[in-house]
Amino acid sequence: MGRLINLTGQRFGRLTVISRAKNTPAGQAQWLSVCDCGKKAISTGEALRSGRTLSCGCFRRERLLQANITHGESDSLLYHVWCDMKRRCQDKYSQDWKYYGDRGITVCDEWLNDFTAFHQWALENDYADGLSIDRIDVNKGYSPENCRWADAVTQSRNRRNVRLVTYQGKAQALSAWSIEYGIPYGVLYYRYTHGWPIERALTEPVKKKI
Description:
Elements: E1 11-12, E2 15-21, E3 30-35, E4 40-44, H1 45-50, H2 58-70, H3 77-90, H4 109-112, H5 115-124, E5 132-135, E6 147-150, H6 152-158, E7 164-167, E8 170-173, H7 174-181, H8 185-193, H9 198-203
Antiparallel strand pairs: 1-2, 2-3, 3-4, 5-6, 7-8
Helix pairs in contact: 6-7
């Protein structure tokens, strides 16, 4: 292990480091900082140096407020992907909670409260209708370093737990139904996880964008 770099007094974004803090359970060094807004925050040295953490959270809240006013994407499929990603990691009443939040799967600070940041990453990383967000390491959370856009086949092969969906006496993964019925996986996943009966989810035509 290399020698610890003392970050006391250094400034990162809106944060000024004032002292060491207790290490993370994994042994990463953490630092106590004071934000320009007056609040204090604890962050890992790696998060500070990499630029992932720039404030106590006020900067992200300001960006979120602006995004809610300007992004105009609240009805888009990508916005629903973002909402669903957070829901399965944070909502204990979600049917997917046991596969995500209950296993310690989280959404990184960069995306958690900032759809604009997620939207930008998606467009810069080949997002397209029909693709869904996929974690490269299924035991780690959602972050730019651990996510990609994948088709249904790639994602189904990468899943830790594949849920089987039964229709007309046949049980198979949602990705397989997507292929069989020619429905983009992202659309089918959205329909199914939002309570659509499986028959309707599979047979209702997909509206094409004009």
